[in-house]
Amino acid sequence: MFVRHQSGTFSLSRTWLAKSGLLSPKIVFNVFKYAVYALLTYDGLLFFYGDIAASAQTFGAAVDWRNAIEAYAATFDTLSWIALLLLFELETAIIPDRWLRGWVKWLIKSLAGICYFIIFYSFYGYIYKYGVLTNLLPFNIGDVCSLLGSDYTWIRTLDEYQPFDQVACAIMNGQPLFQIAGTEIIGTQTAIIDAQRLAMVDVVNAADWLLIVALLEIEVFLQLKDKLTSTIMVAFKYAKILLYGLLFVLAAYWGVKSSFLDFWDAFLWLVAFIFIELNMFQWHEETEEEKEQEQASTVPAQ
Prior knowledge:
This protein is about 70% helix and about 10% strand. The protein is of the alpha+beta class. The protein has a domain at about 30-135 and about 190-280. The longest helix has about 40 residues, at about 260-300.
């Protein structure tokens, strides 16, 4: 049902929307939540394209199944985190408690185990990448512009290695240069230091998220065992405030020193796990209310 305004435009009748329930807080919340999950999935595709370009320079033609996670660390990491996020969503918001037993429980935990294996391997991949960027050799050449048309690439920032061109010639000529050992990537000291710092931020960010999900896993376990007390919830809340606070700082650093995609992706992940935290809080509150109702029903009438 549409209503025409004096301006001649149409808008959906608020009365009809209210009666239909389409603007109920729960529906709006869920639409926003799953839109964020969809955007994270799209970000995973963008990271895949970035990994293809970067690995072509750092690994060349040597990428195979044995080092695929090292070469495509961001892609495997993102996809595994998306799968883990959806598993948390199933546990904390969708599947009823009575179903989170038996084969359903073990299926979820088995899938989560696969995700954690890839996530830890990706964490190693970030550490490995930092090691690659810190393994440098002095690069001595009389005229940098003589590299035009060669196989050498230059580092603009982390994971951005570009063919040697006139821009690189102008930037690097007359400056001390360094080469990443085992590659044909060269760069100025400033560019390489910036890339090293961003690589270290990747390591810290990954470690921070691992601590957060460890706390979440403990909460889910205790909740299913009916042992999650308010005291534990409060203690975990303060611990996660510190961890999420660090993630906000890292996201801001990416916003200043890296690409918008890195900042946007970090922001979306923070929003996504805030949803999981809200799911966890609501799940715990509902369980406590059910226990209170059961206790009230068993109290003998006076």
